[in-house]
Design a protein that fits this description.
The chain is an alpha/beta fold. About 45% of the residues lie in helices and about 15% in strands. Strands 2-1-3-4 form a four-stranded parallel beta sheet, with helices on both faces.
């Protein structure tokens, strides 16, 4: 009598990504966390065209999350969104937060942009808080001269490793929530 092989179901996590850079970062997270454990699937979904408006991006994330659930439920859902457009329209910001809560989405606010989030992975850079996207890109290039927007995960992995992820999670509550959900140690 042959024994049936049981393949355990992987935990599915939704990650809405404002742009291609965030999608590559999601792939990098899968690579780094995947070195520790393989019992998850990080479903990185591009949120375009959101135009950077938080409400439009949360609406897209909620819609795409619902579509993705046709393949099975998500254990958790997150969205990587730049904060640089937050505060432009207070009512839309409140609607975005309310919709995220209703849709079960945790927003990972990139303060003020994705490059600033990347910057905080570097040694002695966790407390750096550039006030604009231009300043964040400049500070990141000071730490990583070869940085270019939209890099694939393989190129990100050359400079961002598990230690960098630990540094960033200490100052990025949304990122930490995602890493806790992934059981990243």
């Amino acid at each position: 009598m042959r024994r049936r092989i049981v393949i355990p179901q992987r935990k599915r996590i939704f990650l809405g990504c404002e742009g291609e850079s965030e999608q590559s970062y999601g792939a990098l997270l899968s690579r780094i966390v995947g070195a520790q454990r393989q019992d998850f699937f990080l479903d990185t979904v591009l949120l375009r065209p959101g135009g950077g408006d938080p409400l439009a991006l949360v609406e897209l994330a909620a819609k795409k999350k619902k579509l993705g659930e046709k393949k099975g439920d998500y254990a958790a859902a997150f969205a990587l969104i730049d904060s640089d457009k937050r505060g432009v329209a207070a009512q839309r910001d409140q609607q975005a937060l309310a919709l995220a809560a209703t849709a079960g989405l945790t927003i990972i606010w990139q303060e003020p942009c994705h490059e600033a989030l990347l910057l905080r992975h570097f040694p002695n850079a966790q407390q750096l808080k550039p006030q604009s996207t231009a300043l964040a890109i400049s500070a990141l290039k000071d730490k990583w001269a070869g940085y270019a927007k939209g890099m694939p995960a393989a190129k990100l992995a050359v400079v961002i490793d598990a230690a960098g992820l630990h540094r960033a999670r200490g100052v990025e509550p949304g990122l930490n929530a995602l890493l806790v959900e992934l059981d990243f140690q």
